[in-house]
Structure formats: C-alpha cells, structure tokens
Amino acid sequence: MVSGRIFRWVIVPLSGLGILLAVYFRELFLRSPPPILQPIPLETAMWSPVESAKFAPNVFRPANNQAQDLGKPEDYIGRPPSHHFRDDGIVEVNPNGQHPIFELIDRAEARWQAKLNRASKNLEEAIQEYRRRYNREPPKGFDVWWDYVEKHNVQLPDEYDHIWRDLEPFWGMNPIDLQRLQKLQESYTDTYTVGKTETDPRIKLLGVSFSFPVTSETQHHLNGAKDFISLIGDLQEHIPPFRAVFSPHDSPTLFTDYQIKAAALEAAAKGSYIDLATVKPGRRLGWLSGCSPSSPARQGNRTSAPQSKKTFIDHHTKAMDPCLHPQILEGHGEFLVHADPGAKEVLVPQFAYCSTKLHHDIQTPLLLSWVEDILPRSDDPVWEFRLDERLGWRGSNTGIYHSPETRWRSAQRARLVDFAQDLNGTVKVLIPSHTSKKVGEGAEIPKQKLNPAIFDIYFAGEPVQCGPTQEFCEQLARAYEWRKRQNIKEAGNVKYILDVDGNAWSSRFKRLITSNALIFKATAYPEWFYDRIEPWVHYIPVQTDYSDLNDSLLFFRGGLYGEGSHENLARKIATDGRTWSKTFWRKEDITAYLFRLFLEYARVMSLDRDSLSYKS
Ligand SMILES: *[C@@H]1O[C@H](CO)[C@@H](O)[C@H](O)[C@H]1NC(C)=O
Ligand SMILES: *[C@@H]1O[C@H](CO)[C@@H](O)[C@H](O)[C@H]1NC(C)=O
Ligand SMILES: *[C@@H]1O[C@H](CO)[C@@H](O)[C@H](O)[C@H]1NC(C)=O
C-alpha cells in the first residue's frame, strides 16, 4: 500500500515520466498532540508550544501557564507515576513498578476524558478558546464553521492545533512574499492548483503542471482536488478567494531548514515578518538542518547505543519527531532515501497529503482508502470470534527502492520482517502476569519458541520497487518467504494487527481502526487526526524501531500459552478504536477540518489579514 518513493525511484527512472505523483491517495493525515498553546518557541519550532517550553525554557513561554499541564501523570491519577515519563514522549520502565501499560492506559484515559470534558459547547466558548490558544481572532467565517460543527456533531471542536502548526510559520511572512512564492510554485512540474477567484463563488481546479498529459489514466493524480471540492460542497461559498497549490506526490517534498522556520515563528509571535533577503538557512547538516541546535538529535550521538531500559510511547507525535529520536532517520525510508537532503531556502506554502516533523508541507486530509465501515459486517467478527492471536501483518516491500545501492535493509518494512522471522538466539521480554506487583526486568526466551507463536508477519505478493536488474529482484524473492495477500475477510480472523508506513503514510489505518481488531501502529507521519485520537485508548502506539512491540503484544495476548493475558483490555481498546473511527473520522469530520484549514489559509495568504478575521 502506499506509494511514493515508488514513483521517485521506479517510475521516474524507468518510465521517464518524471513525476511521481503519488497517487494512491490515502486517507489523510496529520496531527499531533497537546493543547494549550500560545505563540511560539523559537527553539522548538518542530514541537508544540507546550512541549517546547521544556527544551527551551527561555524562549517564549506559553502564555497560559495555569492551564493544566497534561504532561504530569500525577495531575490526574492521584499518585506519582511509578515509571519515568520523559520529555521526549517516551516512558522508561522501572522494574519495581507494576507493568507500565496499566499506567499508560490510565494516563491516556484521563487525558482523553479531560479533552472531551473541556470541549467548547458554543460559539462564544470556541472563540475564547481560540484566542487563548493562538493569541489572535479566529478567521472570518468561524461562525459558519461552528454551525457546521454543531449541526454535524463534530467532536472536539477546539482540537485543531495541527492546522496551527502547519500555518503558523506563514504568519511570520509577508503575504506579498507568500503570494509570489505560491504563484511561482504553480509553474513547477508536479503541482496542481485549486482555488476561488473574486468573480466565481465555486472552488475550481485552476491549473495543472504535470510532465505528462492529464488523461483518463493519469487523472487520478488530481483526486486530492476532487476530494477536497466534493467534501467542502456548499461551504465553499464561505471561503474567501484563495489559490492553493498541491503536490500530487504521496510523500512530503518541502524539507524545512530549522533556522528559517524558527525565524518565521519568532516573527509571527511578534506580529512582524521575516525579510527573505536576510533570513538564510543554517549550516547544511543533512536532515539535522531541520532540528534545533539544542535538540537531542544535534546534541547527542546520531546512532545511539542500544537502549538498556525497556521503553514505551506515552506521547505518540513526540515519538515521531526525528529531532527527539534521531534513530528514525536511520530506520525509515522517508529519510533513508536522501543522505543529504537540501532544505528549502524559503518556506513555501504548498499542500501535500502527508508530512513529517521535518517538512513544512501543509497537510490536507483526503479520501484515499477511506471507508465508512467494513462491509459486509460478517467480514469483521467481534473479538471472541477472531481465532488468530498472533500479531498479523502483510504488505509489499514498499518504503524505499531496493537495490544494492540503497539502504533498504534498514527501512521500516524489511526491518519488521527480519525481526519477526529471526529464530536465532534469545529475546528478553517482560513476562505478563496477573499476580506479580512488579513488572521486573524481563526474562530471556528463545526466539524460535516465541516468534512463530506470536508473529504472523510476512511480505505479500512478490518484490516491487527493486532493481536495477531482474537478478536483484530474484534475490529478494529468495531472501524472504512471500505469502499471498490477505483479503479483508481473512484479516477478520486476526485479533492483533500491525500498521506500518509504506512509501508514505499508511492508508490502511482507517480500515484497520474501523475493524474489531486491536491495532498496533508504528509511523513517522503525524497525520491530521492525532490531536483527536488517544493512543492506548483507541490503538497501541509502537516505536519505529519496534523495541516495544514484543512487550506490548505479550501484555495483551499473554505469554506463549496466553498466561498473564489482558484480553479484556485488548477487546476494550479494539472496540473503542472502532467507535472512535465511526465518530471522529466521518466524512463530516474531514469536511470540518478542511473548511477550517481553508478559512485559515485564505486569511494568512491575504494582503488584508485583518479583514479576513472574525468580527464578533
Ligand atoms: C558519542 O559516542 C562516543 C562513543 O560512544 C562517545 O565517546 C562520545 O562522547 C559521544 N558523544 C556525545 C556527544 O554523546
Ligand atoms: C546464530 O547467531 C550466532 C551468533 O550471532 C551465529 O554465530 C550463528 O551463525 C547464527 N546462526 C544462524 C543459523 O544464523
Ligand atoms: C522482539 O522479538 C523479536 C523476535 O523474537 C526479536 O528479534 C527482537 O529482538 C525483539 N525485540 C526486542 C526489543 O526485544
């Protein structure tokens, strides 16, 4: 599933198409976490304002210090944490505490409940909350947006920090510059432009710049525009005139220089603009140019020593940040493909279907692989009728081009399959238990006993994205055991399903979370919905190095014979995930997101931002 680097590496070189368009649109994207913002932290451009204060104590403090700090577990579970919750979103296990997953679930449930409880109940409250978080007035049309939200029962009406994160740097740029950059971008190959002119109330496709003709075969590259226009429907009349340029690729393309983004955020916080003639990128450091000089990635060793402590994810989008977790750069196709990516010399306002913490593509949700439900319902049995208790995964070897010259072996999918099929040696796992008060250090178990019993993880089909010779593809075919693809009915027999990235974000997540299975998710793409979902409540977050996967799985399913299992919790999270999908990821929820995003976008791009602000 998922494509993009495919195009970059295969279609482009092989067919000379030149573009890539990524295309298989997946469902959308991004989001990141917590609440309570205010202007921005220079140092922490890549993190949320709240998170940031911890790494950059002297730069702009969040204005509203009295707002609850969701980072402290004792605030809401009434006792000190027994494990060490780190600022980078990871919890370190204390062997003398109880199993950390209990605490992770408690903490996540409290956080989710608090978020639901504090949601604005009317327009007035929503405006107040908007001002509190972002320190400015909402965009013009906010009342119409609120009506839509109310009428369609869109939940969590304040949780759109993701939009803020995507657009805030542009507030620090002169709209004259932004319009010029936007216009220039329209002329580049591999873009298309949608928008609305002064004279026509309808949003239209205004231009296409592909290196090939748009035909019935290639027009799916424009699906993002089609989805957008159909989802926004009649609401489009309320969006001020705008032009928006989209990349049809499935991967983000705008790598951000930290220094430029930090300068833009600093200007935005002061209500001024950066001067493009003087603000220049920092030293070229490969992907690390996207990170603050004080970030762990730039302070420490790039390749960290193997972790001696057991760890789990507490805060998922922080765990996706390569500036906090530089090992992501060495283990994910998105980053492995370019050893020395050049950052953009300027921030470019362009939309894409996904992004990472190191890119500034503005993310727009789409409908690729979106499902309302899994039908017929008999293909999605309830928990008790799912017989396979291994962790299941089938997929192609996407994520990177496979050749003797690329680092494909380090990419997320090959690592996963290698790890699940390795039978040599022992592995140390936390032994789940119903009686022990202490989780302990873990016990060594021979992999040949453990792996076949708990993993059903294989490449499916045959090698793709490989070359340059057929011989190399054949080597790949021999190196792995390729299974047949799994259909939806077969997946319905599986209790525990893993979701990992392919060439870009995983479009299958919408279908998976809608099912009655418990979903484990490892990803480097903070999609649009992460402020609106809760790990450990709706799904199980997994580190991209999979170091927590064994222990999470064993906690829920129990040991080799199911001993010490917590299936009741597994069933609950699986069911709550499905309910979440049907309540928080409906077409109406995507529409509300897009509508708000484009009200904001039209304003930040406008020469008269003030007139496009909401007037009570
Ligand atoms: C990086 O690792 C090397 C070898 O382990 C060590 O000598 C050095 O002090 C480390 N540097 C930093 C900045 O941690
Ligand atoms: C298993 O691992 C050991 C130690 O790393 C190595 O010497 C041996 O060759 C491996 N066996 C197989 C079958 O790969
Ligand atoms: C998890 O289990 C697999 C299979 O036994 C093993 O290869 C891997 O090293 C284990 N990972 C950790 C972090 O223990």
TrEMBL record:
It comes from the Eukaryota. Residues 328-608 form the Glycosyl transferase CAP10 domain. It holds the Pfam family Glyco_transf_90. InterPro entries: CAP10, O-Glucosyltr/Glycosyltrsf_90. Residues 109-136 form a coiled coil. One of its GO terms (molecular function) is transferase activity. The chain crosses the membrane at residues 6-25. Keywords: Coiled coil, Membrane, Transferase, Transmembrane, Transmembrane helix. The keyword Transmembrane applies. PANTHER family: BETA-1,2-XYLOSYLTRANSFERASE 1 (PTHR12203:SF118), KDEL LYS-ASP-GLU-LEU CONTAINING - RELATED (PTHR12203). This is Glycosyl transferase family 90-domain-containing protein. It comes from Collybia nuda.
